[in-house]
Structure formats: structure tokens, C-alpha cells
Amino acid sequence: MANLKDLKTRINSVKSTQKITSAMKMVAAAKLRRAQEVAEAGRPYSSRMQQVISGLAANANKSNAPELLVGREDVKTHLLIVVSADKGLCGGFNGSIARQTRQEINRLENEGKSVLVYMVGKKAADNLGREILNKTFERIENLQGSNVDYNKVKGVAEKILLGFADNQFDQVSIIYNQFVNAITQNVVVAPLIPANVVGEQENESLVVYDYEPEQNELLELLLPRNITTQIFSALLESSAAELAARMTAMDNATRNAGDMIDSLTLVYNRTRQANITKELIEIISGAEAL
Amino acid sequence: MAESINIELVTPSEMLFTDTADMVVVPGSEGVFGVLPRHAATLANLQRGEINVYNSGSITRRFFIDGGVADVLPERVIILAERAVDLDSVSIQQLEERAVNATESEASFIAAVKNAI
Q1: What's phi and psi for A115, nearest 5 deg?
Q2: Based on the structure, what is the number of domains in chain B?
Q3: What is the mean pLDDT, run by run of 10 residues, along chain B of 117 residues?
Q4: Partner residue opposite A45 with nearest CB, options B12, B28, B40
Q5: A225: contact with B, CB 8 A cutoff
Q6: Backbone φ, ψ for residue A158 (5° rounding)
Q7: ipTM of the complex
Q8: Domain extent at residue B43
Q9: At A198, is the pLDDT very low, low, confident or very high (cuts 50, 70, 90)?
Q10: What is A23-248's CATH superfamily?
Q11: Residues B24/B8/B32/A217 CA torsion (nearest 10 deg)
Q12: CB of B32 within 8 A of CB of B78?
């Protein structure tokens, strides 16, 4: 039978774990509100940028349009930007990113392309470990949460554009967790190069625009900016999603700890009762023997 | 009263300004131009400079942007700017705080903003 003292220690240790998880949940919930506001404030810019690019692309002359828009004919190498968290303890957040990345790598390799990865955040890189050892284009950390900074993201985008111009890769897409609401995050794979221009053409192409400067020149100016914007908004979404995932995970952990404390306390009380009964029996049978 | 035009000034981190006005003047890369209601649809690249919002003949709001793009339709203007500052509410002190650990390009933008105030 379990020893009373051991049970007590066990209960206390679960209790202190519960305190930690519930504090983490609280912190995540508080930060989430802020991150959600930031992510939502960033949406108008990226959606309008997308709209402008789509409108431009719909009217563009495809034959001499920039490569960033139409892509390269011969795709040898594909760059995947993988956005995960720097910290763990957020449920399936990093795991689902890693799983999607693995799938994406397999799919691309089956198509005969070689794959490079740009790891943003520490955890997916840890998770994928050796699988991406020879594929890593670059790793970067400390870009999430309150550290999301447009100027830093611009640096990332510039590096990617240089790599593209240098023919290190011919296609780029980004994998990240999109924030839907506090309990749902969606893993999204979005193309960056060639630019994603679906959906908006119908309403925009009706208007005949004046372009200043020329259309293609304008595209050359805007497409690089668009890449920065898309990465930036992906990071904002991912940061909010990470906090939401952590909040849910820690809420579950707190509840599980509570259940565990309940069942341990039950065992503890039963054991204590059994001990008392045993002692009583011993006393009574001792008294009867006299 | 004459018609008015919807203006949106958007930066990556926020919707800085959205309102209607009589006219807005933006710093196009091929020359500063004013946008009145029923302006022809235009997509223009913008350079660093001031955005002035006019109401009944005088400037009511002033912003400073570090380049961007203006999407003009007859009834509205959307200005997308990577960096923008509201000249009416920003103080020299705030700018100096921002300049402390700014990158080179941001520092030059801040210097330009100071001149504009």
C-alpha cells in the first residue's frame, strides 16, 4: 500500500505544477489580447497591398512581367520559410508546423525539386532536427511575440530577395500558424514567389488605372515590399496563434492537474482511513486478548 | 457643399488615419499631386514627403511618409506607407527617443520628419 508521506509529497508536487501552469495560462491570456490587437491592426495593410498587387497583376503584360510575379519556368529549388515558436509548452503548435513542413518537403522532393528551409523560431528546427541538416538556408530566432519588428522583417525579406536574384532558389513559400480564434489555429502554406494573386481580379480589372511610373516599373517596386508585408503579417498571426495555443494547452494542463490532485487526495484519504481502522482493530483485538 | 473623398492612410502596424476630406496632396515619385473627388483611377508610387489633408481650403491634417504607394479611385484614396508619422501629434522628444536605436534608413527618415515639423 502506498505510503502516506509519499502520497502527500506527490500531491504537493502536482499542486505546485498546477500553480505554474495556471500562471502561464494567465500570462498567455493577457499577452494574447495585445498580440491579437496587433495582428488585427496589421491586417488592413497586408490585405490592401495584396489587392493593389492583384489589380496590377491582372492588367500586367505577362510576357515581360517581373519574375517575382510570374515565377521562373524552370524550378529547381524551393525555399520554405517555416515560422514556429521560440518556446515550447504550447500544445500542438510547433508539432503541427513541423508535420506540415515534413509533408511539404516530401511533396516538393517527389516533384523533383530540391528544398531549402529558412527556419524562423527555434522549436520547429529542433523538432525536424537532422531532416533539415543539409537543407537549412538560414535560421533566425527572437523574431516573435513582442519582438516582431517591421525593420527586422525587412532584413529577412532582403536576404530572400538577394538569394532569389542569385538563383539560389526559384520559388518561395511560407508555412505558419494562422490565428483564427483563441482555440483554433490553422496551418497555412502561402506562396511568396511567384506572388499570390488569386481571387481579387474580377472587381479590380474593371477599372482602368493610370500608372505612375509605368506598370512594370511599379511592379518591380511593389513586389519586394509585398514580400516583406506578407512575412510580417505571417509573423504577427503566428505570434498571436502561439499565445492562443499556449493558453489552451496550459488551461488543459491546469485542469488535468486538478483531476490528478482529486484522485490522489482520494487515495490519500482512503489510505489514511485504512490505517486508522487497522490501528483500531489492533487495539481492540489487543484489549480482547486480555 | 462639394463632394468629399475617402482617405485611408495605412502602415504595416496600424490604420493611421481614415476620414473624408475635400482634397489630399500626396508626394508622388514623379511629382506632388493633389487628389480631388472624381480623380481618375491611378496607382502611383510615392516618395518621402508630406501628405496634406485639405478641408474648406486649408490644411487640416499633416502626415509624413517614407515613400509608399497610393491607390486612387474616384471616390477614395488608399495610401500604403511603410513608415508614417502624424505631424500634428508627434513631438521632437518622441522622435529623438525613436532615433536612439534606429537603423540608418529610419534615422534619415526621422531627421526628415524633424525638418518637416
Answers
A1: -120, 135
A2: 1
A3: 86 91 94 92 92 92 93 93 90 84 83 85
A4: B12
A5: yes
A6: -65, -40
A7: 0.88
A8: 5-89
A9: low
A10: ATP synthase, F1 complex, gamma subunit (3.40.1380.10)
A11: -150
A12: no
